[in-house]
């Protein structure tokens, strides 16, 4: 009954000790007679002997037999409990502890009452939703590249720029235009092209052409003494800018070129000033506001004849020019003349001038 003691310290420390105690108990315990079970399932007790001795009452069974049966039953129950504990010990204790093969000392375990834990209810297995495989996107079948349409390059050399543009458009080509100086090919004409004429080229491609700007330097010799209308027409065909200046001349007839600036050559894209004769005439210098003494000299140098020089007061001037500012206008300044300023008049024409004369304060 030590194996079933309530105090763990009173129990066997190991399963080996329990097995050794069980073996000693079986060796030293008296033999126990075997009992036959009754039909009713109760305990068997031997019946009183039917033989009786003469003249005496029957003998009762000895108490030793009853004690032996009770001891056997109790021992069997204890043995069954021990066997159950041994089996449980074998399940809980490592086999090396029983066989003594462990190299390490086996600590004395503290026996704890084993309380069976309730078996946890199995958790429900989650339903696995079927995975839908993605539908593969069909790769588009590459369409065959169309064969480019080809055309022959037109001949553009010696064509004008307008003609070259029309020819390129007819063949569905583009033009890349660059201007260059050329002393032979006139301005506006194609000097060369790339690719050359006759070569097969994909439609929509670009043809590069070089267009002449004419010579870098333009000769101007032979223009003087010619009618201005002819000279102007010639210069307009060149890449230059023309400016006209009228000038009186006693030797060059009216309407003819007196001279040009520059005289011999002008750079391509430059400006040519053409001086045209107005005949034997002079331009009336603008002398308004200038001192009348200076005006007399300048007019005479221009080829005019100064006749009368007339002083005028503020009131007299305001009769002709109501907005005349007497306070700001200089004393002695020219206010008018009988000829229009900057007009062309025959040489030796007479001219009268008037000037402002301030009155002394009273």
TrEMBL record:
Question: Which stretches are tagged as biased composition: Pro residues?
Answer: 117-147
Domain of life where this protein originates: Bacteria
Alphabetic keyword roster = Membrane, Transmembrane, Transmembrane helix
Instruction: Read off the InterPro entries from this record.
Output: PASTA_dom (IPR005543)
**What PROSITE patterns does the database record attribute to this sequence?**
PASTA (PS51178)
PASTA domain: from which residue to which, for each copy?
147-213, 214-278
Where are the residues of the annotated region Disordered? 32-63, 116-149
- One of its Pfam families is PASTA
Transmembrane stretches in the record are 69-93
Q: What is this protein called?
A: PASTA domain-containing protein
Source organism of this protein record: Thermomicrobium roseum
Q: What is the lineage of its organism?
A: Bacteria, Pseudomonadati, Thermomicrobiota, Thermomicrobia, Thermomicrobiales
